[in-house]
């Protein structure tokens, strides 16, 4: 890890990160606080909104941390310093993972607090697990975008593959969610998206199936972050 | 003494026979070596291989005995670099950019950095996104020089600089040379290399096809280009039949340009007596003229 680079990346992405984090926390608090909407925290917020909003941050910043700077040419200045490419990739990865941890960590706090204030009736452990699940989806998304960001030298290719894949997974999750409202034929659609590996329904009934599924998301994250780092360390850079 | 830069059969082959092929070069510490060539000749590719940004297809290059691809992070500690295309990171102003860069290099803004900023007359408060090409180039130069690295790799460092700043740059180059800094720079403007470089390599289609050292440059300067305009076809034919080396001819204007050595003044005067002179002008043979010829013959 390179601390000066981490600082630069943090500053460069602060606006997007803070906005996304703020919006996510605000919506979550709102849904829990209002009696009528508390039931929608599961299907609407954790089923759709959480992954959709965080995807904004992941796609924008995942692109920016590597390929964006290669495409633009400013990566030359980072690599003029005596710093290994692997260190650059790991630092940027550290930033992405770290900021996701902070975002979802804050959401744990927000949800517990709102639950307490409104007496919404959620068990604390359930709220923590829900946020953990949403975090794992975000982590897998970040890995996918990061892999594309490490592989390609042009932003448009990285966004066209990694970014598109993330959006596709979200769309499939939204379409698939209609299966829960009686369109049984859409059940299979849920198998096509990694978002459904976050089994919020199972978490809410305090089941035991959700944890292994989250492990799969973790596996995706490990693999994709690894791929991105490996490619970035070895490829030709047009700087 | 160990060479600062050593390239052995260094090759990077791109599609359509572009790239750099079998480059062999040794640069001693303290030497200033220029590399010239047209766009696409392979100058930037050579620089990128030295920076460890691209992997050679075959052959290899070393900086101070360290492989530029394998040990890229270590060699960077020895290099100050100006990329061929200047693009700064997302930041507010020149000042914040320099601060960021100094942090990455783990250095502080010392007297030398301030001196560089003053020499290049950089307005550090200017919005980095709105900087002119020349301003960006100057900032990039400060970034490279402030490393005080033993080796400077400068890819077309004077692009966008005005004549005054070009002079400042040349002065600075000569100053770091006295401190023993090695410089490897590329340019498509031959003349600016003449004053600073110990050696000039001429690159074409990825290969070094000619090398000029100071001796050759001095020999080059012993020639004058003489443009002679006669009055009629008879004059023109006479001018065309001389033993002087012919550089250029324009039959419609009865004009020829000859290359005349400083020892050939007498035969030149003899020649001039035989024609009815309309116009004559002398200019010193410089690298531009020299490479024009090279370009035509190779």
UniProtKB/TrEMBL annotation, chain A:
This is ABC transporter permease. Coiled coil: none annotated. It comes from the Bacteria. Keywords: Membrane, Transmembrane, Transmembrane helix. The chain crosses the membrane at residues 12-33, 45-67, 88-112, 132-152, 159-179, 214-233. The lineage of its organism: Bacteria, Bacillati, Bacillota, Bacilli, Lactobacillales.
UniProtKB/TrEMBL annotation, chain B:
Residues 5-230 form the ABC transporter domain. The keyword Metal-binding does not apply. One of its GO terms (molecular function) is ATP binding. Keywords: ATP-binding, Nucleotide-binding, Transport. It comes from the Bacteria. SMART domains: AAA. CDD domains: ABC_DR_subfamily_A (cd03230). SUPFAM superfamilies: P-loop containing nucleoside triphosphate hydrolases. Belongs to the ABC transporter superfamily. PANTHER family: ABC TRANSPORTER ATP-BINDING PROTEIN (PTHR42711), ABC TRANSPORTER ATP-BINDING PROTEIN NATA (PTHR42711:SF5). This is ABC transporter ATP-binding protein. It comes from Loigolactobacillus binensis.
